[in-house]
Amino acid sequence: MTLLFSTEILSMTDESLEQIERPRRLHFEWVLPVLFRPRSTLVKIAMQTAGVWLAPLLILTLTTLASVAVAGSIKQAAVLSGGPTLPPDFQYMPPEMQEQYMQAMQATSSPVFLYVFPAITSLGGVWIGWLLVTGLLHLVLTLLGGRGDTGSTLNIVAWSGLPFAVRDIVRILSMLLTRQLLTSPGFSGFIPADAAGGIAYLGQLLRLVDIYVLWNIVLLVLGVLASTKLSKIKAVGSVIFTVLLLLAIQALVGFLVSSLSSLTVIRPFF
To answer: What are the CB-based long-range contacts (under 8 Å, 24+) for 137-142?
Structure first.
């Protein structure tokens, strides 16, 4: 009897120790404090030895998918109500080309193009973007003498991305109220829609810059200060360099895609 009781005590002790050794990875209670009391909360996150990045990424995943669903429903309603938009020289096309164009328009208005592909692209932006920011920021911090590890940077970057979830919610509410897509996100409204060359690239860059990006930069700086003990100048410089470099690359991709999509095929005169 004594041996059995001792065995149960040892078993309970082992289970308690196992629970202590396995820290909790989901911390939804940090969501609002990160947004509104970031300094002390990011210090707490920087002290974590385990990966606690899952909760903010799950929130970003949900808000991203919700934004894609609302935008897709608006596009689908526009297609059903107004029909496909025909090019100016549609009437001069041969019947075969007209039929191919209509088939292409029907394909691009299918649920795969309206929901699946945008969802995959947006989720890639969340998860791959998180890894890219983490990798580049950790490299810059290491070169500047930062003592933080990769796990800490993963946590800080993930939680600092919560302002983008707030942006998704604001955009969702705007689209639901107006039943219209956002045509000029960020500060792109300051650039003419028919701009070309360097001005067009600047417009693509300004599409990516808004108050939520600035909010994200502030959180990243606070997280870097808490996790690496770098000076304020180095922390601010490393974060701004990382964010601007990735935004510049993303804007370049958008500029090239926009330039290619605006090319027109000249119809021959014979």
So the answer is: 137/220, 137/224, 137/238, 137/239, 137/242, 140/238, 140/241, 140/242, 141/224, 141/228, 141/230, 141/238
Whether 248 and 205 have beta carbons less than 8 Å apart is answered as yes
Domain positions in the chain are 52-81+89-261
- Using CA atoms, how far apart are residues 24 and 127, in angstroms rounded to an integer? 21
Best CA proximity match to 191, nearest among 175, 178, 207 = 207
Q: What is the pLDDT of residues 182-222, one digit of tens each?
A: 877 777 666 666 667 778 888 888 888 999 999 999 999 99
pTM above 0.90, yes or no: no
Residue 254 burial (10 A CB sphere; 0-12, 13-18, 19+): middle
- Are the beta carbons of 84 and 33 closer than 8 angstroms? no
pLDDT > 90 in the chain, percent: 51
Cβ neighbourhood burial of 161 (10 Å; 0-12, 13-18, 19+):
buried
Side-chain half-sphere of 62: how many Cα atoms within 13 Å?
8
Q: What three-state secondary structure class fits 1? A: coil
